[in-house]
């Protein structure tokens, strides 16, 4: 059985698996580093020290201000998909990124707007 082919590239369509932040200490370190807010996403980013970890890592969080558990989970699902699409191209190795959901915006904004917001935030953080 052949794997599906990505449109316009002729290459196999593969899942981009991102390393996920799980420890609170990593989230806290990212919160004290660079920050960039957009209408739909708040991005926190930090360059890791040498030898700390390899590759880029990403974490997702939504406070209770976003809504009930259903709304928070929907926001995090949307953030995960946006990160899966944008970070392999615009992210940098050796960096940790935390995507924070925004009250009523992350779940209601059009998906294309969220993608554009993350791209803009990453350009500002790295530029």
Which terms summarize this structure?
single chain, 127 residues, alpha/beta, Ribosomal Protein S5, domain 2, five-stranded mixed sheet, 3 helices, 5 strands
* Largest beta sheet: strand ordering: 1-4-5-3-2
* Backbone structural class: alpha/beta
Using only C-alpha atoms, the radius of gyration works out to: 15 Å
Number of strands: 5
CATH C-level category: Alpha Beta
Strand content: 15-25%
Molecular shape: globular
Architecture, according to CATH? 2-Layer Sandwich
**Helix content class:** 25-40%
| Series of H and E elements | EHEEEHEH
Poorly predicted sequence stretches spanning 5 or more consecutive residues: none
Query: Total domains, how many?
Result: 1
**Named CATH topology:** Ribosomal Protein S5, domain 2
Report on the biggest sheet: 5 strands, mixed
Mean pLDDT across every amino acid position? 88
Number of helices: 3
Question: N-to-C terminal Cα separation, in Å?
Answer: 44 Å
Could you describe the 3D structure shown?
The protein has helices at 24-31, 69-90, 111-126, and strands spanning 19-20, 34-37, 41-47, 57-61, 95-101. With 127 residues, it is of the alpha/beta class. It has one domain: Ribosomal Protein S5, domain 2. The longest helix has 22 residues, at 69-90. It is globular. The relative contact order is 0.22. The mean pLDDT is 88.
